[in-house]
């Protein structure tokens, strides 16, 4: 073998060829069959709760990018070592590549959203990896092959892998949902949500805008690649403890009289002061209508929903049926069809419950059942079964550790207690008394409310606290609780300096 560097490169080239071949085949059988993504998705599902929590806290929405990059670094390192170990005989390299191939096969095999034909992708990877390594190795140790031949072969592999990988990407794109979403066009609700009055937010004073733009709406899900479902391929099966099983196609939903509701969604992983809370006008149909058409049988407790990628969620049937709550099967958001990353073609939105028990995106299956019969994704991983959103408030301005001018300092923020409503928000500066903030116009009980208050602030360091009281009379506890198992508690506070 010519050099150590070349030996290591051989391993990496074989790895690249393997991944590219798998990606190309995945372009035909479904992008999630791409072994790299299947292993990543498998890793996400196997990740223990504490590590997942740490990843989300540390990397936020970049957690998946960090995972994919970490995987790439490890794989390249292992492949390089495998190459180095194969300077005399190709056996160590072949063993390692076969090992990678088997991991890919197992990952695809165990993905709930993939069927048997998806195994073709990791199989292609396995064959391409082994063949490339064996070929380059033989060429390299052959006494009659020139340096030029070997380099050309290596370059050929790079080009081939590039073309295959790109081809897979293009093929996957051709099957994507963007064009289908474009074709849906405008969704015109029969009953529009009341106009948001100008005094519903204090955006000029530093609160968020009342409605969150779609591209600013927080996003939380376990999907490494956003599921691409075309409206024309989508259907929703409604079954289980019902009088008759029903199946809805996209047109069946779209052609009903649509309702529009303004709803604030919150994630259970939102830390005190966190950003996983947003508000939109959702357009869709009443979930209760669909459930009543199917006829919910007595004894039903859980609405167990599944997304196309196998993620599952369990909601209380009672909450889904409660007309006053206004649970929806939503197909639109802020005047557009649902953005793909927010669940196109359709998702659940049940106001008042954290997203993991109420907001299944890319939903394709609703099973009416009991709590004992089915356990949803996060329930199995240590999160609570029922998870109503906890009353919370957040200071948005000043920012933590900001320096402001002394004198009049305006503090502004948001509060939410979905389905109960906010009664008041109080602020405390340092050791001072609690003072009541000015509340914004109430849009409805299922949305956040904005608030502001001014303090006369002396120069120096300060801390300001906020706490909300909801319409049930409950005032936020000071006691800090973490997000696991059913949502964080505690007062948000920020430190700032007046100059
Ligand atoms: N298919 C699917 N739906 C899902 C999730 C998921 O991981 N997969 N996450 C849930 C969680 S935890 C939350 S908080 C909301 C977030 O919805 P958004 O990303 O549209 O804000 O989606 C819910 N629906
Ligand atoms: Mo969530």
From TrEMBL:
It comes from the Bacteria. Keywords: Membrane, Signal, Transmembrane, Transmembrane helix. The chain crosses the membrane at residues 65-84, 91-110, 116-137, 149-172. Residues 1-20 form the signal peptide. The keyword Signal applies. Residues 224-378 form the Oxidoreductase molybdopterin-binding domain. This is Molybdopterin-dependent oxidoreductase.
């Amino acid at each position: 073998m010519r050099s150590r560097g070349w030996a290591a490169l051989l391993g990496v080239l074989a790895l690249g060829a393997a991944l590219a071949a798998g990606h190309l085949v995945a372009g035909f059988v479904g992008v999630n069959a791409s072994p790299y993504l299947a292993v990543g998705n498998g890793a996400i599902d196997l990740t223990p709760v504490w590590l997942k929590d740490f990843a989300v806290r540390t990397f936020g929405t970049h957690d998946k990018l960090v995972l994919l990059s970490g995987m790439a670094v490890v794989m390249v390192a292992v492949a390089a070592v495998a190459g180095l170990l194969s300077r005399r005989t190709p056996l160590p390299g072949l063993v390692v590549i076969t090992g990678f191939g088997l991991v890919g096969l197992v990952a695809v095999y165990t993905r709930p959203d993939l069927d048997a034909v998806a195994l073709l992708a990791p199989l292609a990877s396995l064959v391409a990896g082994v063949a490339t390594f064996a070929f380059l190795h033989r060429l390299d140790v052959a006494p009659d092959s020139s340096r030029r031949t070997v380099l050309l072969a290596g370059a050929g592999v790079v080009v081939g892998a590039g073309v295959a990988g790109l081809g897979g990407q293009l093929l996957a794109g051709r099957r994507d949902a963007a064009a289908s979403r474009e074709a849906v066009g405008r969704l015109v609700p029969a009953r529009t949500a009341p106009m948001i009055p100008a005094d519903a937010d204090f955006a000029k004073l530093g609160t968020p805008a009342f409605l969150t733009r779609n591209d600013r709406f927080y996003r939380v899900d376990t999907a490494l690649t956003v599921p691409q479902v075309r409206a024309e391929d989508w259907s929703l099966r409604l079954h289980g403890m019902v009088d008759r099983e029903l199946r809805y196609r996209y047109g069946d939903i779209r052609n009903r009289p649509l309702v529009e509701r303004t709803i604030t969604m919150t994630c259970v992983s939102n830390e005190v002061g966190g950003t996983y809370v947003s508000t939109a006008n959702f357009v869709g149909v009443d979930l209760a209508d669909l459930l009543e058409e199917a006829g919910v049988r007595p004894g039903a407790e859980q609405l167990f929903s599944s997304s196309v990628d196998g993620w599952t969620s369990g909601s209380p049937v009672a909450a889904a049926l409660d007309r006053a709550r206004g649970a929806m099967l939503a197909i639109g958001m802020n005047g557009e069809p649902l953005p793909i990353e927010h669940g196109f073609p359709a998702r659940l939105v049940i106001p008042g419950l954290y997203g993991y028990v109420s907001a299944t995106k890319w939903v394709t299956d609703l099973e009416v059942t009991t709590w004992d019969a089915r356990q949803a994704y996060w329930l199995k991983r240590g999160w609570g079964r029922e998870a109503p959103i906890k009353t919370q408030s957040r200071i948005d301005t000043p920012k933590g550790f900001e320096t402001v001018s002394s004198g009049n300092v305006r503090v502004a923020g948001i509060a939410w207690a979905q389905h109960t409503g906010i009664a008041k928000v109080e602020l405390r500066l340092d050791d001072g008394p609690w003072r009541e903030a000015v509340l914004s116009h109430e849009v409805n009980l299922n949305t956040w409310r904005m608030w502001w208050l001014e303090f006369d602030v002396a120069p120096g360091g300060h801390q300001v606290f906020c706490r909300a009281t909801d319409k049930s009379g409950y005032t936020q506890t000071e006691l800090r609780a973490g997000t696991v198992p059913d949502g964080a508690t505690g007062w948000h506070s920020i430190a700032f300096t007046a100059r």
